[in-house]
Amino acid sequence: MAKINVILRKEDLDPSFLHDKVAVVIDVLFATSSIVTALNQGAADVYPVLNRQMALETVRNFVKDSYILSGEQHLHSIAGFSAYTPLALSRQSLQGRSLVYATTNGTVALRQADSAAHVYVAALLNAPAVVNQLQQHKDQTLVLICSGSAGRVNLEDLYLAGYLIEQLSAQSSDHWQLTDTCQIALAVYRQYDSPEHCLRQSQLGRVLALTEMDEEISYSARLGCIDLVPKFKGASLQVA
Q1: Cβ–Cβ contacts within 10 Å for residue 218, how many?
Q2: Kind of pairing, strands 236-239 and 230-233?
Q3: Which of 13, 42, 52, 223 has the greatest number of CB atoms lying within 10 Å of its CB?
Q4: Please, what is the angle between helix 155-171 and helix 180-189, to 10°?
Q5: How far, in Å, CA of 184 to CA of 146, rounded?
Q6: CB distance 14 to 107 below 8 Å
Q7: DSSP 52-114
Q8: Structure confidence at residue 17 as a pLDDT band (50, 70, 90)
Q9: With bands split at pLDDT 50, 70 and 90, how would you rate the model's confidence at 119?
């Protein structure tokens, strides 16, 4: 019987644990939502990086105008970089260009997960497509990695993990062995009548709702509006 495990926050992740497993990285507000949106808007690929310095080093040998730099540190846009939220990114000229993307939590989790056999990106936007993709890995352990926020567990990430577990279990009820953290994620998911209800109840969602990012919360809660799954291929994320 294959196993599903949930990592509650990136700080709990041991990269050596992932070497033969399938990792799914989650950061609903906003890293994974932005990555999914960028690829859906025609970006050639996405390079997840840790910070501004790593972003600049990544593009050192890129052709001019072939990339966009985007990112945040502690919810503040990085100086000189494009906006980092999904709707704001969707208004950029992304077609055929690489997005080099740095965030405080989501891209850090992605870099920590790159030792896994396969690494996928999940947002609410593409969650049904992720469920379908994971059906190809029924004989491997799945590790759902909630990025969290600076060491704290995020409600919205756990909610999405619970959705994925619920859908996978519904399709193959006797196939998956669930860990205790899976049961926690399921309990969180089953508390809410809609994704947006959860996002707006979360600590981060409540903070963002008081800013100009309120529209970004509603967008990021749109379940299944994008039918693609980003996957690590070499150093960048591309459509699987």
Answers
A1: 15
A2: antiparallel
A3: 13
A4: 100
A5: 12
A6: no
A7: HHHHHHHTTTSPTTSEEEEEEETTEEPTTSBP-SHHHHHTS--TT-EEEEE-SSHHHHHHHTT
A8: very high
A9: very high
From 97, 67, 96, 102, select the one nearest 84 (Cα to Cα): 102
How far is residue 159 from each of residues 35, 101, 209, measured CA to CA in Å? 19, 24, 18
What pLDDT is stored for residue 150 in this prediction? 86
pLDDT tens digits for range 72-88: 999 999 999 999 999 99
Cβ partners under 8 Å of residue 182, min gap 6: 4, 5, 6, 161, 165
For the chain, the domains span 2-234
Please state, in angstroms and rounded to a whole number, the distance separating the CA atoms of residues 127 and 129: 5
**pLDDT digit string (tens) for 142-188?**
999 999 998 999 999 999 999 999 999 998 778 899 999 999 999 99
9 and 152 Cβ atoms separated by less than 8 Å: yes
Distance between CA atoms of residues 183 and 188, nearest Å? 9
Is the four-CA dihedral 5, 11, 16, 19 of positive or negative sign? positive
Residue of 133, 124, 86 whose CA lies nearest to 239: 133
pTM of the model: 0.97
Domain 2-234 fold = putative 2-phosphosulfolactate phosphatase (3.90.1560)
